[in-house]
């Protein structure tokens, strides 16, 4: 059985290794929060639902326009970035990065975190 604290440990490692990532969450593709490092004032249910909807709509758009599958969605504002990435089967990773973030490094950290999630799931299924 999957222990949700293991997802929290993965997010702990993400934040320990990347000062540019200010918040993060692991969410199911139907919008259920599995683990998060979000500010206290943030409504987790809303973030998880919006993240799942954003990735779903972007996947349909990319498939329609380019005939391919999207890897991530990037929303940029003056306050920073929100990046939603497909992580593993039925899971996604949402991160909030500061406005001065070096996106290449953030993507690298997202990829490492996605790999950790995938390894956790593969270990649980074995």
From TrEMBL:
Coiled coil (UniProt feature): none
Domain of life: Bacteria
Pfam families for this protein: Robl_LC7 (PF03259)
Annotated Roadblock/LAMTOR2 domain residues: 8-97
InterPro entries: Roadblock/LAMTOR2_dom (IPR004942)
Protein name: Roadblock/LC7 domain-containing protein
Source species of the chain: Moraxella nonliquefaciens
């Amino acid at each position: 059985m999957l222990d949700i604290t293991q997802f929290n440990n993965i997010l702990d490692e993400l934040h320990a290794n990347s000062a540019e990532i200010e918040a993060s969450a692991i969410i199911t593709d139907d919008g259920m929060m599995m683990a998060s490092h979000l500010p206290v004032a943030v409504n987790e249910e809303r973030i998880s639902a919006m993240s799942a909807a954003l990735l779903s709509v972007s996947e349909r758009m990319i498939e329609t326009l380019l005939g391919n599958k999207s890897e991530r969605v990037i929303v940029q504002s003056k306050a920073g970035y929100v990046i939603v990435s497909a992580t593993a089967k039925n899971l996604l990773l949402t991160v909030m990065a500061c406005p001065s973030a070096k996106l290449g490094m953030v993507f690298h950290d997202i990829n490492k975190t996605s790999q950790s999630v995938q390894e956790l799931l593969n270990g649980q299924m074995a």
